[in-house]
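Record 1 of the preview.
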Amino acid sequence: MLSPTKASAVGEYVERKISSIQKGILAGNSHARATLSRLRRDINGPSTNWMIIGNDIYSDWPVGSLGNPDDDALAVNAVVTALGLYALHQQSKSYGVAQLRKDDEPSVSFGRACRMIGRNNRANPQDGAVNNGVTRRLGAAEAAPTFEGKVWFFRALIRLMRSDDSRITLNYRDFARDLYLIQQPESASQVFQRWSCDFFYRTPSNKD
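->
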């Protein structure tokens, strides 16, 4: 079983990186735009180009909480993937798509964000509770035998969030934590169970 403490540390590092990038993007900073472009090209490519994004990943790697990156490929995979998917999500948006800790609103998990896709264009049956296309992609991601296969479907879902009429935001701190955990079967099942609950379950007072 992967360490929950390490998983949380992965999320903390990703949130710190994204907070800085997002602040720069919203301020029109050219350096932040260049960083976003590098990370987006990487997640859209057939394989990671380490010499292009290495400085973005490793220059301030928190050895105290995550250890030597050479010793934990799963943490590196989670960080690279989370940052790349954020860059894809943020593309061409005038608002921040990452829900940060300071935001005074309920946390938006990956499962909840997926449930929000299409809710404003009535693509979802059952009053927005289920979107069959999204459900199929989530199911395919769960069934994919490799992390890379799962990421392929995550990328498709993030693109749907980006193109949606709603301003769909996502808690990338928790998403990065989950990306770390799903790389081992015993913890992956728990992650998908949480996402499934967030996607399908609605309390009587929460009909969105």
